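Work Package 4 report. The design task specified in the project plan requires that, given a folded chain encoded as structure tokens, an amino acid be chosen for each position. We show below one input record used in the internal validation round.
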């Protein structure tokens, strides 16, 4: 009898504990909500939230991620005003974090903002630009871009076709990251492969836009390497940078290399002194994309192209910009 009575008492105590706990939790949650002055959603559904988006800002000049040869450039950018609610007097342009006296003109449902940097930048200086403004609904917007002022800079362009292309970069960009180098064809490529011969045995390395950084083998582009890049559409690859002499290590056997110069040369001249006796050249009209060539006097090496170069012994190849 005592055992049954003890069991009943324990059950009652347990139920009381649970009920008391739930009451305390519900009370705490209620106090939390109303202490924060947050009312529960109405029965009509989600509360109304105003949909405010930034105006479209484009046509940065000098372009974003670009090296520009003029040390006294005119800096400009366009901000759209399709909604008609931008406050013109609020538009401000900052260069190197300093507010500058810019010119603002109406143009095609928006404003063109420009500023001439008469004092000139230091050669090689990284220039930061920022546009700020607000709407008549008290919504602020901001846009940033940057370029390098470098009197030695040059620009480069190359047409790329749908499918695989064998390419390299002939100039030193402001930033070697894939995002920076291939900014002009962002969204038009999927995968990049290169062949690394730096170890005891060569191996393929890959990058995919669908993979995380820790899965990809590389995230930057080197001037000494060539790359197979897979394009989703025909487009033009644009790049700016500075010509720079390069030393490329050629290991005995086949090497996938760049041609890091803006000058075209016969392969027999460009590879003179390396002992190269054969090379493989990209041909987008060939079903196999690669043609093996033993007569190097028939090949003109061009900026932006990648090549397979064969040498009998390890050697250093110096390429002058």
């Amino acid at each position: 009898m005592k055992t049954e009575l003890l069991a009943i008492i324990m059950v009652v105590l347990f139920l009381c504990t649970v009920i008391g706990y739930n009451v305390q939790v519900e009370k705490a949650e209620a106090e939390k909500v109303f202490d924060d002055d947050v009312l529960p959603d109405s029965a009509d559904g989600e509360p109304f939230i105003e949909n405010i988006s930034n105006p479209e800002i484009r046509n940065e000049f000098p372009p974003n991620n670009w090296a520009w040869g003029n040390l006294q450039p005119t800096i400009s950018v366009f901000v759209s005003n399709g909604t008609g609610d931008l406050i013109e007097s609020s538009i401000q342009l900052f260069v190197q974090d300093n507010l500058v006296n810019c010119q603002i003109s109406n143009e095609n449902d928006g404003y063109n903002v420009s500023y001439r940097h008469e004092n000139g930048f230091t050669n090689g200086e990284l220039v930061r630009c920022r546009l700020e403004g607000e709407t008549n609904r008290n919504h602020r917007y901001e846009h940033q871009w940057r370029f390098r002022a470098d009197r030695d800079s040059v620009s480069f362009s190359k047409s790329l076709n749908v499918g695989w292309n064998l390419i390299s970069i002939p100039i030193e960009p402001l930033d070697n990251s894939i995002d920076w180098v291939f900014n002009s064809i962002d969204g038009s490529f999927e995968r990049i492969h290169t062949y690394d011969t730096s170890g005891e045995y060569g191996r393929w390395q890959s990058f995919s836009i669908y993979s995380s950084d820790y899965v990809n083998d590389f995230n930057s582009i080197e001037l000494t390497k060539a790359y197979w890049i897979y394009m989703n559409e025909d487009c033009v690859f644009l790049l700016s940078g500075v010509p720079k002499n390069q030393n490329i290590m050629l290991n005995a056997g086949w090497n996938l290399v760049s041609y890091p110069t803006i000058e075209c040369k016969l392969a027999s001249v460009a590879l003179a002194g390396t002992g190269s006796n054969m090379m493989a050249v990209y041909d987008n009209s060939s079903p196999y994309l690669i043609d093996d060539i033993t007569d190097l006097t028939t090949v003109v090496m061009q900026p932006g192209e990648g090549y397979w170069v064969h040498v009998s012994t390890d050697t250093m190849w110096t390429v002058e910009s």
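Residues 5-9, 11-50 have pLDDT under 50 and may be disordered. Validation will be extended to a larger panel in the next phase.
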